[in-house]
Amino acid sequence: MTIKEVEMLSGMERGNIRFYEREGLITPKRMDNGYRDYSQNDLQILLRIKLLRSLHISLEEIKALKEGSKDLLDTLSKQIVKLDQEKKDASYAQDVCRAMQGEWVTFADLDAKKYLNCIKESMKGTDSGYFSIKGDELPQVFHPWRRFLARIFDIFMYNTLWMALLALVFDVNLATRGNFENSLDSFISIAIMLFIEPFWLHMLGTTPGKALLGLRIENPDGRPLSYAEGLERTWSVIGTGMGYNIPIYNLICLLKSYKLCNEKETQPWDEEVSYTLKDTKWYRGVFYIGAHAVAIAFLLTVTSAQQLPPNRGNLTVAEFVENHNYYAEFFGINFGNKYLNKDGKWVKKDFDGRTHIEIQDTEKPKYHFTIANGYVKGVSFEIEITNNDKWLYSYDKQMFLVSLAFAGAQEEIGLFSKLPRRIGEEIEKNTFKDFCFEEAGITFTCVTDYSGYKVIQSHILIPEEKATKTYYSLSFSLIKQN
Q1: Is there a contact between 43 and 1 (Cβ–Cβ < 8 Å)?
Q2: What is the dihedral of CA 9, 13, 16, 17, to 10 degrees?
Q3: Which of the chain's termini has less CB crowding within 10 Å, N or C?
Q4: Can you state the percent helix, strand and coil of the chain, rounding each to 5?
Q5: How far apart are CA 321 and CA 340, in angstroms?
Q6: Domains of the chain from N-terminus onward
Q7: Burial of 1 (0-12, 13-18, 19+ CB in 10 A)
């Protein structure tokens, strides 16, 4: 049956049917076209729900009856007692109304305390909620940790979005972000939250973090917040609840919000909204942890993908150069006013109004390429410096870039390869020393010789005071074996 047929046969509104479906009381099948197919059993369950709800039996009790954890006859017996009490309460309420009417009182001179005391006396020894006014307030969620964890997940999602944008659009190396950059990222994440969260609240009545933990925000009449209302609420959360993410002040605001929640006080930004909690089922925690794991895995994948060069497989010289320059920019290696052109030669940059400062004054190595069938099979460079009275810096960075530009393109290198780290460590620990190692079918060889120098800070050679002659030579090469 279609939902239209079920509406006709049950006399229920479509919204009621959908509600009971969300509550798990009926489970219609899905057809290939996406529409629901309601069975006769679904219809009978809906009719039973309609009857029992008409008798004021609660939804929780109906669920228990359907699951078999409660007996219908016992439930009906208790309901009869409850309805009998409500009948007595309603009769007493009529008596109070007549008494007030008999005194010809107006609202201005009504002695409410006298009648409230009478009601209180009549309610002694009963658990009736007939005279309670607890339903006359906007529902609020007073679970500080649940609310806090929902907020943490949302901010983490916005931060993940920003990190992905930095990595995939602006080619920023996420692995080298320092404390200042991380602090800046946190403020940008809050700015993203300011504009995206109102959209979630308007469209879905919740956010990803809140949905995971069963939280929902709406207007008192059940309507979703408008974007403007969501924006106003989110701005209040950021300022009053999070202290604009300013250190120390942020902590003070969080502690204040925690105290309000513990004392069952409505947060300032929630005074005009209905904040509800669907349930606290155990699986929500599992989904919450799983969602965090997925987001972290996504960030790790993005970070690992950044380690791969733009060109893979067999490389032309121009493609090798593109890889080389990509890694130089990615790792923040500056070559002053020179760059490697598409032919693999060092040339001066065109003047762009900026001053290029090169701290390490070293001779740029001339790269030699071994070509087979139009593709690079090996790269090498040699350096020889005699009678130099200046400091010499190691060529570790050049060797590292050449190695990554070529080795990173090999098919053996996967998304989560540790190749860049291994190559970097091997070159780093052999500064001013000979070495030979193999990675991804490539042999890396370096032969170094120097005299009249001494090593300082592991990467610098300075002329010895008594040296009459100085000499330095380096020969580096990498060659693919097949």
Answers
A1: yes
A2: 40
A3: C
A4: 50, 15, 35
A5: 7
A6: 3-67 (1.10.1660.10), 72-123 (no CATH), 144-305 (no CATH), 317-480 (no CATH)
A7: middle
The secondary element (H helix, E strand) that includes residue 368 is: strand 368-372
Residues in CB range of 162: below 8 A, 6 or more apart: 185, 188, 189, 192
Q: Describe the crossing of helices 227-236 and 179-204 by its angle, rounded to 10 degrees.
A: 140
| Distance separating the N- and C-terminal Cα atoms of the chain | 67
CB-based contacts of 7: which residues, under 8 Å, 6+ apart? Answer: 13, 14, 17
For residues 344-372, b (16+ Cβ closer than 10 Å) or e, as one string? beeeeeeeeeeeeeeebebebbebebeee
Q: Which pTM was predicted?
A: 0.66
Instruction: Please list the alpha-helical segments (H only) found in 377-465.
Output: 396-407, 419-428
Q: Give the max Cα distance, the chain.
A: 123
Q: With cut-offs at 50, 70 and 90, classify the pLDDT of residue 352.
A: low
The per-residue pLDDT of the chain, averaged, comes to 88
pLDDT, one tens digit per residue, over 237-277 is: 999 999 999 999 999 999 999 999 998 888 999 988 999 99
The neighbouring-strand residues paired with 293 are none
Residue type, 465: E
Asked if 463 contacts 388 with a C-beta cutoff of 8 angstroms, the reply is yes
Give the residue carrying structure tokens 């009926």.
26
Instruction: Measure the CA dihedral 203/209/215/219, to 10°.
Output: -30
* Neighbour-count burial of 380, counting CB atoms closer than 10 A to its CB (0-12 exposed, 13-18 middle, 19+ buried): middle
Find the length of the chain. 482
Residues 6+ apart with CB under 8 A from 182: none
- Over the stretch 119-150, which tens digit does the pLDDT of each residue have? 888 777 777 777 666 555 678 899 999 999 99
Strand 453-456 to strand 442-451: parallel, antiparallel, or no bridges (unpaired)? unpaired
Rounded Cα distance between 232 and 236, Å, is 6
